[in-house]
């Protein structure tokens, strides 16, 4: 009786996204794309904007004012940030729950990266939920009080536990994004072959390191460079955003 042929060994590398896999192909492709645009683009913008903390509370307040003065900013916020982020996070959790990492059997860098991508994604998701709630929807309304943005973050980072969470989340989020760029290029066929992927990996690593450095510098500026920031760095802006006073009509 002939023995069954042993299973073919798995090959290292990233499997490309292929059509013919039902709806899963479409949703995975959309999930991969949304991680770059618009979510990745927003992450870069967010880190660059937060880097203005290095120039002080006033500069940061002006940056917050500028962003909240964009036309249709609330529509843009929901259409290009909150909704895509909810989809990317939700489907990412679905993939993480159903996916099976084989780091113990096949200890390749790609498999460790697969595992780390899921872990950093969960960390980033947990951080983003609390960060958006605390900074956007609770406490001082920053869109109408941009000069208080620096102080609001500073008060939060005075808690050593929150400071540690911010640092860990910054490292996890930038790593997740940098490796996500590498995965995107591999899965979409932009970097065919191991050599192209290896070289592009250095580019992605550099992008992640630069973004992480900028994020950590922003945290340093809030906590240590300007330790006693004013509650409102733009009080005149706050008064201009208040409701206009009504003038009594003179009587004859």
Unreliable sequence segments? 103-108, 239-252
Q: Tell me the name of the CATH homologous superfamily.
A: Fumarate reductase/succinate dehydrogenase, transmembrane subunit
Order of helices and strands: HHHHHHHHH
Count of domain modules: 1
Mean of residue pLDDT? 86
CATH topology annotation: 3 helical TM bundles of succinate and fumarate reductases
Instruction: Tell me the overall shape.
Output: globular
Give the % helix: 55-70%
Distance N terminus to C terminus? Answer: 115 Å
Portion in strands: under 5%
Largest sheet: none
Proper CATH architecture: Up-down Bundle
Helical segment tally?
A: 9
Return Rg in Å: 23 Å
DSSP summary, beta strand count: 0
Question: What does this 3D model show about the protein?
Answer:
The chain is about 65% helix and about 0% strand. The protein has about 250 residues and is mainly alpha-helical. It has 9 helices and no strands. It has a single domain, classed as Up-down Bundle (3 helical TM bundles of succinate and fumarate reductases), CATH 1.20.1300. The radius of gyration is 23 Å and the shape is globular.
Question: How does the SSE layout of this entry go?
Answer:
Blueprint: H1 23-36, H2 39-50, H3 57-68, H4 73-98, H5 109-137, H6 149-157, H7 160-187, H8 194-225, H9 235-240
Helix pairs in contact: 1-4, 1-7, 2-8, 4-5, 5-7, 7-8
Attribute tags:
globular; 0% strand; disordered C terminus; 252 residues; 3 helical TM bundles of succinate and fumarate reductases; mainly alpha
